[in-house]
Amino acid sequence: MSSVPAISQPVSxxxxxxRDDLLAIGRGEWFGPGNARLPLPPMLxxxxxxxxxxxxxxxxxxxxxxELD
Length: 69
Description:
12% helix
């Protein structure tokens, strides 16, 4: 018997992120302790993510487009 609860609804995935979202990811507020983070300023090299595609890219493994002001 599995102790993992069933997910009744799929997790919503954003298609873009603003600077506040990027900073929250850098502080570890999105994925929790011990998981991946973005660097915080001054090492953060973009201001927003304008497009996230989980199936795109040259190898079909995903593509992210970002912008820097």
